[in-house]
From TrEMBL:
Signal sequence range: none
GO molecular function, one term: lyase activity
InterPro entries: MmgE/PrpD_sf (IPR036148), MmgE/PrpD_sf_1 (IPR042183), MmgE_PrpD (IPR005656), MmgE_PrpD_C (IPR045337), MmgE_PrpD_N (IPR045336)
Stretches assigned to the MmgE/PrpD C-terminal domain: 288-464
Pfam families associated with the record: MmgE_PrpD_C, MmgE_PrpD_N
Protein's name according to its UniProt entry: 2-methylcitrate dehydratase PrpD
Domain MmgE/PrpD N-terminal positions: 10-259
Entry similarity comment: Belongs to the PrpD family.
UniProt cross-references to SUPFAM superfamilies, sorted A to Z: 2-methylcitrate dehydratase PrpD
Organism of provenance: Aspergillus heteromorphus CBS 117.55
């Protein structure tokens, strides 16, 4: 039949099975190593955040000791629970990567999955003690980095956010299954089983962004579920065949319902240019500790501060309008209400704008609990209004556009005289022009300096950037398992930096 969807699930799984490291351009392999380093920084920072400690406490109350390490805790737990928690750490502070067109935080899916796979099983059989090499780890990571976005592009990527789905939690299970099955060296039919088992577990609601801390964990659900799928397929359990393209109850047809697009989904995008186009090029590293849609707002305010030094003071601001595309408006344009959680603050364009104006930065220190109570922050946020600009919705590239209007009092409020400063941002820093490898390395060193010691930091850095030559990647697990500090202690100046022992859970 002419309207029969192409068999993209099988084609994707065949590609996963046959891909070799030598098939991948050298610069893509190098970029992957820097992306991994950024993801590990996020995990180390996130391990002892207050909500991460709550997550560990809850999971340890129901899960027995197991084979896999919890990053930064010197505790072991089962592989599924370890993947869940370690992913929660990476997503813990909105510092991790995102894909430009198909929003997914790839490191929070792929790295916890691979670390759990390394510790729980060897790739060939239960009796095989052959070490897992860094090259094998690197290849499996690239497979995961490629698979998640490709599956997302089949449902128009960022489109699912506009309909209330947490996009990365939707695309993530397939990425986890792909990376784990590649590391396990499963056959193509078994990989398809795993993808089928993974996709039927996809889920995640964007309402998690407001008051809850579960938003931090939703990529962890995807990592856990994709890893579970890989283990089940490895044991011979049969998954949904042709899961991506099935017209009834398939992944693409189901998650595209109601989007108003023609056609509603694009199976061909899953495998388009699969041997020549690399989605790793679209994986972006964040320069700020907040949700990606807030970055344009931060950049616009920062640009105005540079142009008009000394003018953007809280007491001079009459009002601020922030124009956003529909996806950005729905994710970050909502009106903050007191009390505000750290999660909510990191998802709010108004909070990001206020912090950039008042402190000139939107980094971990700006989200310490005391910051959320500041009266000057709430006063300034009350002057900020976000609006949807439909002109920013026309293309995938256009959705990153933002325009900020800052109206300043010329004299005082009684005079009624004011002037308006306007700044347009085509795309935020690190988006159209990704952060360089050197910038990522600088971010790694800066963000980890207060949670681990220099010797450990340098050892991780050397291992990751030389992964192709690592004979046994389990050395990375040992470096990650040791206790980490609390970044809020360092931000407040009252803690002990990397020597902090955190809570005694």
């Amino acid at each position: 039949m002419a309207d029969t969807p192409p068999p993209v699930t099988q084609e994707l799984c065949d590609w996963i099975h046959r891909l070799c490291l030598s098939d991948i351009p050298e610069e893509k392999v190098t970029r992957c190593k820097y992306l991994i380093l950024d993801g590990l920084a996020c995990a180390l920072i996130g391990a002892h955040l207050p909500w991460s400690e709550d997550a560990v406490k809850g999971v340890l109350s129901i899960e027995p000791e197991g084979s896999c390490n919890i990053i930064g805790w010197e505790r072991k737990i089962g592989p599924l629970a370890a993947a869940l928690l370690n992913s929660t750490f990476i997503q813990g502070f909105e510092l991790d990567d995102y894909h430009r067109e198909a929003p997914i935080h790839s490191n929070s899916i792929v790295l916890p999955t691979l670390l759990a796979t390394i510790e729980h099983c060897n790739p060939q059989s239960a009796t095989d003690t052959t070490p897992l090499t860094g090259a094998e780890f690197l290849l499996a990571a690239i497979v995961g980095f490629e698979t998640g976005p490709r599956v997302g592009l089949g449902v128009y990527g960022i489109e699912v956010l506009s309909h209330g789905w947490h996009s990365g939690a939707i695309f993530g299970p397939s990425a986890a299954a792909a990376s784990a099955t590649k590391l396990m060296q499963l056959s193509a039919p078994m990989i398809e089983d795993a993808v089928g088992i993974a996709c039927t577990q996809a889920g995640g609601l964007m309402s998690a962004q407001y008051e809850s801390t579960v938003k931090r964990m939703q990529h962890g659900f995807a990592a856990r579920n994709g890893l579970f799928a890989a283990f089940m397929a490895r044991s011979g359990y049969t998954g949904i065949k042709k899961v991506l393209e099935r017209p009834y109850g398939g992944f693409l047809s189901t998650f595209s319902q109601g989007n108003g697009r023609t056609p509603p989904y694009q199976p061909e995008r899953v495998v388009e240019g699969i041997d020549s186009t690399w989605e790793i090029d679209q994986i972006l590293v964040k320069p700020y500790a907040s949700m990606a849609a807030t970055h344009g707002t931060i950049d616009a305010i920062s640009a105005l501060q540079a142009k008009y030094p000394g003018e953007l003071k809280g007491n001079r601001i009459r009002r601020i309008n922030v124009e956003l595309s529909e996806p950005a408006f729905k994710k970050g344009g909502w009106e903050p209400k007191y009390p505000l959680t750290v999660t909510g603050a990191q998802m709010s364009c108004a909070y990001a704008a206020a912090m950039q104006i008042l402190e000139g930065a939107v980094q971990p220190a700006q989200f310490a609990p005391a910051q959320l109570e500041r009266q000057d922050v709430w006063t300034l946020m009350g002057k900020i209004k976000c609006v949807h600009n439909p002109d920013f919705d026309h293309t995938m590239a256009a959705i990153w556009q933002q325009r900020v209007h800052v109206e300043l009092w010329e004299g005082d409020e009684q005079s009624g005289e004011s002037k308006t400063l306007v700044q347009y941002i085509d795309a935020p820093r690190g988006n159209k022009v990704p952060l360089s490898n050197e910038e990522i390395l600088g971010k790694w060193r800066s963000n980890t300096k207060d949670v681990i010691d220099q010797e450990r930091r340098e050892a991780i850095e050397k291992l990751v950037l030389g992964l192709e030559g690592v004979d046994d990647v389990r050395g990375l697990v040992e470096l990650l398992r040791r206790r980490t500090g609390n970044v809020f202690d360092a931000a407040s100046g009252h803690g002990h930096g990397y020597k902090s022992v955190g809570s005694k859970i």
